Amino acid sequence: MKAIGLYKYLPIEQEDSLLDVEVEKPIPTKQDILVKIKAISINPVDVKVRAPKDKEEKEPRILGWDASGVVEEVGPDCTLFKPGDEVYYSGDLTRPGTYSEYHLVDERIVGLKPKSLNFAQAAALPLTSITAWESLFDRLMIDINNQLENQSRTILIIGGAGGVGSVAIQLAKLAGLQVIATASREKSKQWVKQLGADYIINHHEAFRPQLEAHHIKEVHYILCLNETEQHWENMADVILPQGRICSIVEMDNPIDLTALKNKSVTFAWEFMFTRSMYKTTDMIKQHELLSNLSQLIDEGKVKTTLTETLRPLNAETLRKAHQMVETGSMIGKVVVENE
């Protein structure tokens, strides 16, 4: 089958950074399903994994995690899906990726595609939606069904216009929270406002004066989606005593965790591949999450974050998509369709 892979980790401007290759079509076993890929989405993790490094692969490494498509075959232990089902998912960081005609994935991390979305619109959602959902409801421990109590609570989402932030704003509003999103450009400010942010501040400036301008002294929750180290002091300053902070962005240097001690603040990491990487006993929660998300989308309560669509699915197109994501200024998501 056709796929896009790499042998060397090179700057994306070089043609050899991503190559059109032929690989053997996989066969599903156990709880795997074989999906015929219709569309994929490019995420920062794709760019990070592909980034230049002194390493070479003997066999082509196939990247890519977000995908939507149609179930072609199912393994003998599958109970959730059947051939012909339209699905969407974000895959497993430890297995070959979705830059291919067909892809194997464990059914426990797959959901039925929202009926109201096409394949491109659906492919934009899984990784960012799982990350946003787990951040809000598993790590920050917000109760999505307690809207009345949540109306008096505030969440600051740092990096609101990106893929995860675009979903997190919508989910936080569904939970009843007052949402403060950060955005620095006029286009990104308009985007987060359209998604439902109640207030907007600039993450390049001190948080407290901007929050106080909106008559907000401190916030109950913070979701950090970029530059954890850069924003650490600001976050420690504006989080309420006994508040919660969650970040998805790793740090290059140690930070002062004791800055949170006197306030008894909880800090948590979110990494949406944890369940699939470690085969946790609750892996199926991602299937359940995606199923719940599909229902919310079909009810018109959450919308896709797709902003750019490219085609066809080949190395040249993927190099363009990687370049777009590498700028760090993407609003929403870029998807590549398999024509």
From TrEMBL:
Signal peptide bounds: none
Domain Enoyl reductase (ER) residue range list: 17-336
Transmembrane segments: none
Keywords attached to this entry: Metal-binding, NADP, Oxidoreductase, Zinc
InterPro entries: ADH-like_N, ADH_Zn_typ-1, ER, GroES-like_sf, NAD(P)-bd_dom_sf, Zinc-ADH_QOR/CCCR
Listed GO MF terms: oxidoreductase activity; zinc ion binding
Pfam families xrefs: ADH_N, ADH_zinc_N_2
Superkingdom of source: Bacteria
Coiled-coil regions listed: none
Family to which the UniProt record says this protein belongs: Belongs to the zinc-containing alcohol dehydrogenase family. Quinone oxidoreductase subfamily.
Annotated protein name in UniProt: Zinc-type alcohol dehydrogenase-like protein
Source species taxonomy: Bacteria, Bacillati, Bacillota, Bacilli, Bacillales
